[in-house]
Amino acid sequence: MTSTFDPVFVALGGAGEIGMNLYAYGYGPERDRRWIVVDVGVTFPEEGKHPGVDLIFADVAFLEKQADRIDGIFITHAHEDHVGALPRLAERLGTAPIYARAFTSEIARLKLSESDTSEGRVKTVGAWPETVQAGSFSVGFFPISHSIPESSMLVIDTPAGRILHTGDWKADPTPLVGEPFDPEGIKTLSKDGVLALVCDSTNIFSGNPGRSEADIVTPIEELMRNEPGMIVATTFASNIARLRTLAQAATKAERSVVVIGRAMHRMISTARKVGLLTDFPDILDARDAEGIPAEHLFVLASGSQGEGRAASAQLARGGYGRLSLKDGDVFLFSSKTIPGNEVAVADIQNLLAQQGVRVVDDAGGLYHVSGHANRPDLLAMHKLVNPRGLVPMHGEYRHLAEHARAAEQHGIASVVAPNGTLVALTADGPQLVEHIDTGRLYLDGTQVYGAMDGIVRERLRMSWRGHVVVNLVFDERDALMGDAWVETRGLFTDLDGEEGALQAKLEQVVTDALGSAKRGQRSDDAQVEKLVLGRINTTCQQLLGKKPEITVMINRID
Amino acid sequence: MTSTFDPVFVALGGAGEIGMNLYAYGYGPERDRRWIVVDVGVTFPEEGKHPGVDLIFADVAFLEKQADRIDGIFITHAHEDHVGALPRLAERLGTAPIYARAFTSEIARLKLSESDTSEGRVKTVGAWPETVQAGSFSVGFFPISHSIPESSMLVIDTPAGRILHTGDWKADPTPLVGEPFDPEGIKTLSKDGVLALVCDSTNIFSGNPGRSEADIVTPIEELMRNEPGMIVATTFASNIARLRTLAQAATKAERSVVVIGRAMHRMISTARKVGLLTDFPDILDARDAEGIPAEHLFVLASGSQGEGRAASAQLARGGYGRLSLKDGDVFLFSSKTIPGNEVAVADIQNLLAQQGVRVVDDAGGLYHVSGHANRPDLLAMHKLVNPRGLVPMHGEYRHLAEHARAAEQHGIASVVAPNGTLVALTADGPQLVEHIDTGRLYLDGTQVYGAMDGIVRERLRMSWRGHVVVNLVFDERDALMGDAWVETRGLFTDLDGEEGALQAKLEQVVTDALGSAKRGQRSDDAQVEKLVLGRINTTCQQLLGKKPEITVMINRID
Fold first, then answer.
1. How many inter-chain contacts (A to B, CB under 8 Å) are there?
2. In which order are the strands placed within the sheet that holds A549-556?
3. What is the pLDDT of residues A103-148, one digit of tens each?
4. pTM passes above 0.90
């Protein structure tokens, strides 16, 4: 018997939030530990928190420092929050191959084609029992149902034992596209003991067992058949099974299928390319839809989350190309609204209502099922695997905590390990080892910077308080030349109905203050700035009831 | 028989949105029409849409111009979105009395005490059959159940017939505090014919009949009894019945009741003052809670919507005064999360989970019921009243449209009349007459300005794009003195790891451009500005992938 190490697990993203999944498993002595990375996802900025930010991903500094010891990157499935940061982070994570199944590989390559990383770095792997050797790890992709094809639970074998990393999953016996949930297979995988089950937690608070993708086929078919007008449906473009159900139901109801939105076209063609979508009906070009009566049209549109530029939003604002909606048409949100997007989605729905369009959403549970395992499904998984320990992943803190609590209630050792918590996966259950520095990176235009760099905080302060710029010119005797000059942005300036009254008042206050200041004070930039900041703040507080952000620019003529 | 006019109805707020209710009814010839105003509510800014704005209310310019023809202001109930704008708008709406029932009057007076409007303007009115004569209108407050005491349906009699204005309502036979829903009374009110039913629409998409406040008493009692730790609950402070249910259940479970948060204290004392809350248990001062074991404590905390400064948020961040939570305590959200607040509420819940606190919310429907009528209740109301026409109010456009559709399906004439749509309430049903200008006003610090004034738009642009300020000094020969000086806010400046590299680059680009410009160009401010804007935009696009907001300040030394 050779001596072994306890494998370690750490989340750099995805544990303590929904989205931005990025996990790593390590094996070996700490100073020479070898790593594999699981998923490299993004999260999306929130309107009021991240102005000007385009995308958010995990700060991988911890792994970057030991990138030469990363032996593989494994992508469980092709959702943005699992694959979306590859173009930005792949280089930082060294040069190890990126492994994924066929559909995910295609999506990963499409993403990398827009970056400096070679698409050739992505290696397509077949389903379990095929495995990849990556350092001390042997990794296989065991098919598991989710809301995208070819989602996989990773079977990670180490010298110390087996780890099952579920990825995102649900217990769906009939997912319609891709492989069904296979409890017997999971039992077989687990029969010799599992060191740790690292498991999706997002739906731990949903008390009913999850429903199957097949459950919504009939309601969708009825809707397609019974509505007298055009039907538009939106959903996540990557939900290939849903696209297929919608399109097939439309065809049955003698509706031509039009697809609008780049994301939809890309996903459909990728699924076709890898052979996942052999029975999708012919797609009619949007330009050829004009002559067709509304009751014979079905439109599949991207933008289920209220994205302002997506096809759904364009239709809501009046039309997409020549395609437009009218009184009596139906718009189906075959999707869940992600928390934070409620208002954006409602805005779209209100615009649609203004056109007389009837909006149907998932409120009744008829037209959408979740892609994640609910509480009873999670407990069933715990039972199937019966691991030495459970590490909840993918969830906000409250989800992780509740998932751990549920496991422990059923006698499985667990630990709450938010981003940055290094956990040893021991035969006695998961043990906290240490905390490592983690954080978030912001993509803003073409630049990437840290969440803690203060840039976004500066923007938020300007947006709450406005920005006052004071321009001063002093002559060689340190006397103010002319008056102070004040410009403002984002401040109400027309006091008592008088245009620009605020600037005029501020200029006068600053000019007066500098006029009565001593030369020693005027000659010193720091003192001038202090004086000006004080006067501007006091005056704005008096006139506006709040203090602005202030920039003082002092010019001296020698 | 004297000739009559068709009464008119117009929403200045509340129709096309949830919140900010402000309606007016007019009677008489257009140029000499007399008005009554119903509700004067606020709405709250959204994080990503209204940075720096404290409150939002309706632009009442249309009514302000004819304020001398307003004969009364009627407040249906004391929720912020019905009464909250009184301190800011009462003066603009002339000098007519403000009528409300006792509890609402107290709240209205408390609000006015912080404004220039005299509290004496508020007149307390008893419930129907008491009525107030206001010009051509006779108005009575018919009690109707809602999530606050003394909510009223207004019975508005005009020479042309009766109008029923429901206010916010639900069909609750056992609201626990305040009068039960009274279908027989409404039938009696309606027996001689109703010209128009103007009706709450917020829950038109909820398909099941609403539940009673009494339905949640037992689950709450069980929770109080069975939990071994401290229980904290939050809900809307104005939901007096809920506060009473929670406090009484706590007392039964031998828990002392602590109340934290100004809003809670204010509402409880107001309800007591007007005799609505005679059986609320004694309140323990938070400072005296220290010695009491957790299982004997119950804390009622304000801040159910995730408000950052409220008592709930303080507890989540570590403590309120000396009161703090620990592993095993329970935090109950006996409330619904208003759309737009989901992320703020989840943030609080995650902080609580980090302290080991179990969060219980309304997901299971055990601990909260809505205060609004669901679709079946709305249809039942239509049937009870059988009006000549239905005008849906209080709802986003989609709610109004669906409510109108539902009415018409059952043979009642209806119209969708969002804010600014003047509707004649005729015997043949409601008819669109004209559109009047409406809008929103922003309260920002102490100033009030229009939503269209562009100030918030300026802030948003700065927050998305950052702000570059360029300072130039030209000598008497129009030559640049020294270099251009650039300051930035909200921009990433440390290009390639070099601190301030962006400013340096921008200064060089602008200095070079001005250096090679002709004197005629340099002597003209407009041409200088155009040149500088162009260079800054081009350079930022190259270096950052985006264009900033820019302010150019040109100083000339003569």
1. 208
2. A485-489, A467-474, A549-556
3. 999 999 999 999 999 999 999 999 999 999 999 999 999 999 999 9
4. yes
